[in-house]
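Margin note from the TA: students keep mixing up input and output lines. Inputs are the sequences; the output is the structure of the whole complex. Example:
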Amino acid sequence: MCQDCGCGDPEVVPVKVQQKILARNDRTAAHNRDHFLGDGILAINLMGSPGAGKTAVLEATARALPNPKKVAALAGDLATENDANRITAAGIRSKAITTGQACHLDAELVHRAVHHFDLDGVEYLFIENVGNLVCPAVYDLGQAFNVVALSITEGEDKPLKYPTMFAKADLVLLTKADLLPHLPFVDVDKITDALARVMPNPRVISVSAQTGFGIEAWIRWLATVRTNALEKFEVYA
Amino acid sequence: MHEYSIVQSLVDAVTSECGSHAAALVLRVHIEIGDLSGVDVDLLTTAFETFREGTCCEHADLVIERVSTQWVCPKCDRPIASGQVLRCPDCDEPAQLAAGDEILLRQIEMEVPDVSGLRLR
């Protein structure tokens, strides 16, 4: 018993919480997702190392699309708006999210960016994450699918070194495929084997932003998964 | 280095629990971190030690339970070891992650003033 005021000793109480630490981010992500799918927009979280070719893939996608007005992009970058400017120049409406020191985008940053971004008539929204194979994998943004750009120059065992990122990927774009003839020591089978050990259902499309190789297959994949995602959303909505 | 932002979310969650239990002091915070969660436990500990200053967690110990990655076949429940091809050799089904992606706040040990009738558990 407390000697001073008789209030009783403080008691140590174990309080069970059992809550995701990122629950708030997940709630905002779920809100984003409902908005995107409700408006008929397929949101893609495009991730990859710095220099993997994320922006170049989007530029090539813009060139190959019959109607680039149906596509929009948010480009996450630490310090510049260069990527967003490149994507805009390629014909896709886009907006930069400058994160300052943050190594990843989160659902709140995406939510704020989308609030001041005209998505009228948009069917595909690419969210180009900050170049980084670690942190972006942890944050749900409200995307329908995760796509990871992995360039063939990055090392065949890259997926084994960053298993979390690849375990969460729905599709891997094997970029810079045009360089393959110049890389006698790169064995693509080794890359796909490494992917199969970290991705339960590995789907891979080889692309070259330079030549346009594989871009049609990537656009077909997008169209298919958009239809499926919207059908599924309507069933559950 | 997203561990700082995770610690920020953790401290926010603990602060909110403390408020609803009128806690005077937080002694221990128990969390679970999966090996495939993308969170580095050492960096998280450093971030917690830096970030807790001036918060309700200032005097709290962070107790981290690590959870190993477990892949299983969704059809026959056969475990598939990490590092193997993630497809069941029997059923040809893609493996499913059964554990290892946890970033969970499990339990908070707090000192609650023992005031009769006001005690909340």
